[in-house]
């Protein structure tokens, strides 16, 4: 049950600078209006400065990690799955398929933790995220080295920060009682399309 009420979207900013700054890297559906319809932003809007900070940080994590939009979604899905976060999984499973063009089979493979079904580079990325989340960031040298076989140091920093940001969202959403606005898409996309 929500512990903090959602604010009226009309009370939220009409624009966010980061959306203009990163417009070339974002899907055209990611607008201020879209952000203001999100339960996170409506809830965080009880402190509008922090709602703006969330939008800026979130968009930065999507666009400044050196990852492709597909890789960003793989990271977020792996975080959501490892945390059993239906709240995060729901929106990002849909985004993975509809905005990032990831095959449904690959989304389901993450849900089932069947990384052998994924391309090698993505498998290494997802395995890193599972371990990052499970061990509170304490990834092994072996897992780190496997990741650096595919990504440079700048991108590894981006991967770790993106994963940590979605762990943060999970904790905040849990503490504030954020809920899905529609029926859960399902770990295996059994309710997709919703």
Description of the molecule:
With 194 residues, the protein is an all-alpha fold. The protein has 10 helices and no strands. It has helices spanning 17-21, 32-36, 39-44, 48-63, 69-82, 86-98, 104-111, 120-134, 141-148, 153-176. The longest helix has 24 residues, at 153-176. It is globular. It starts with 16 loop residues before the first helix and ends in an 18-residue tail after the last helix. The model has no long low-confidence stretch (mean pLDDT 97).
Break the fold down into its secondary structure elements and pairings.
Blueprint lengths: L16 H5 L10 H5 L2 H6 L3 H16 L5 H14 L3 H13 L5 H8 L8 H15 L6 H8 L4 H24 L18
Helix pairs in contact: 5-6, 5-8, 5-10, 8-9
Short overview:
With 194 residues, this protein is mainly alpha-helical. The protein contains ten helices and no strands.
Features:
194 residues; mainly alpha
Major sheet summary line: none
Q: Please give the share of residues in helix.
A: 55-70%
Total beta strand runs: 0
Helix tally equals 10
What oligomeric state best describes the polypeptide chains here?
Answer: single chain
Which structural category do the helix and sheet elements fall into?
A: mainly alpha
State the order of secondary-structure elements, H for helix, E for strand.
Answer: HHHHHHHHHH
Residue runs with pLDDT of under 50 for 5 or more positions: none
Shape: globular
The N- and C-terminal alpha carbons lie at a distance of 22 Å
